[in-house]
From TrEMBL:
InterPro entries: Transposase_32, Zn_Tnp. This is Transposase zinc-binding domain-containing protein. It comes from Hungatella hominis. Residues 142-163 form the Transposase IS801/IS1294 domain. Residues 10-99 form the Transposase zinc-binding domain. It comes from the Bacteria.
Amino acid sequence: MYKRNILQTIFSDHFEYIQYVLRPGKNIMDNINRMIHCHDPSYGGAFFGCPHCGNLKFVPFSCKSRFCPSCGNMYNQKRAFRMSCKLVSCSHRHCVFTIPEEIRNFFLKNHSLLNCLFHSVREVILHMFFKLHKSENFTPRFICVLHTFGRDLKWNPHIHALIS
């Protein structure tokens, strides 16, 4: 038996409760199932052989889910690197845009509203730069990332913006 991480153990122990009581969507259940079996050798893997000594090593397949702590971390590192390659070499500012606690439930009940946050942040940034630099004709560049939970793991949709 392979050694599971703590999240795999928690989700595995409560899988039936999640599936039949909480009843999340198919996509969420697929990601949970993939994460539970990440690096499980019974789900397959690949053999690698050393061309010099002939030693073989079996490496179990990963789930490649962003929900998985190890695979998701790798996804985030690769994404951060790709984004950093696109940044212009200049000063940047990090801004966080959030919404009042009283209206967060609307976004929880209807996730399609989250896209509105990106449009709102875009409008705020463009308006701010227009007000500050009316005589100059330029458009700021920025990258926005949605976070749906705060540090306390409570539902708190907010946008992180990196602005040049």
